[in-house]
Amino acid sequence: MSVQINEIWQKVVDNVNLSLTPETYNLWIAPLKPLGFENDIFTVAVPNIYFSQWIESHQQKNIEQVLSANLGRQIALQMQPQQDLTPIIAKVENTPAPADVAVAQSAQKDQINQKYLFNRFVVGASNRFAHGCSEAVAKNPGNQFNPLFLYGGVGLGKTHLLHAIGNHIKSSNSVLRVLYVTCETFVSEFIEAIRFGNPASFKNKYRSLDCLLIDDIQFLVGKESSQEEFFYIFNSLYDSRKQIVVSSDRPPKELEKVEERLISRFGWGVTADIQAPDLETRIAILRKKAEDEKLYVPDDVVIYIATQVKSNIRELEGSLLRITAFSAFTGTPLTVDSVQKILKDIVRPPDDSAPVTIENIQKIIAEEFNIELRDMKSKRRTDAVAFPRQIAMYLSRTLTDKFSTTDIGESFGGRDHTTVMHACNKIKEKMNSDPYFNAKLNQIIKKIRSLQ
Length: 452
Known about the structure:
The protein is 57% helix and 10% strand. By secondary structure, it is α/β, with parallel strands linked by helices. α7 (128-139) runs parallel beside α8.
């Protein structure tokens, strides 16, 4: 039955495609998927309610006519949105402040966030060692890589790994006592214990743990009494072969105003750094986030965000939620054009960075495909020339934010904007069907970026 439904739907989209521009077809029709056919009702999946509204206004009657003609009776079209935009809007509107997050976490017994798992952590060259060490610790706590010291900039995944370790240990052995705590909370608890004359309870809480996961240890800087207490807790846990995992925004030796004996102990185990993710990892992170949140985001939009937002994962994922929320509020379809406008305050390049140029894109593509640079502007239409030229047009559209399709066409030998749009659509189709081409394209983008 599913084969029959797919065949019927293919006839519909082939018919609809005849009356639409490639851009409109790829934007509104290609994402639709057949779900079922029962009681003369043909159901298709649409990414969200705005797709339903567009189809109702522009194509529903046409689609129903094609369905009816093919099946020999009156057929009604029913659309089923796959993306519930309500939680996305709420997530953007009600994102808690850091203080609210801390309060929410402190209300949990072990403060471990169950959403942060190893299988939801995107591994790349920038974090592979840290991820591997974290998995090893989680599988054999207290016996390997103890202590584990993770460091890196803000929003790169340190906290995710700490929680993932905690979740894995808890799921493997529920008897073990595991605690995630920020260093700021640790210091506050210590101060409160002294204030109310209850230091023994504080000591027992931490020394009785099987695994201590402490985030942002740099908050110990300058707090001598807290450092001393943590030093004794560290020794107690370490001597009992209990696991200690620490995160920081800098390596141990750069923790100024922290006692040398404590820094020395951080070096007893393994220190692993996490760098900013490379382009391939950023693309993978965005795709994973879109999959987890059930978001429909075109591949060219994903690549655009990944090439523009480089600082950290939080900003990367935040940009994805932002464009989706904007689309939900306004009904604006997600295209590179619309995303450029939505993220203009985020992706604006710093003053000292040169923008990507069409000339550099043409140069790199010509080198990659072993063709003459002048072929980018020539009238030659052989596949060996036309396909690389289409890639160059697509990247000129995706990686730059100041050139219109008309401008790009002029840079490719005076071609009109419809030729540029056709090229972009061809490349997007190739991206959707060929993962090897995607990998090649990512490498080319990195090379283009390196010239700037």
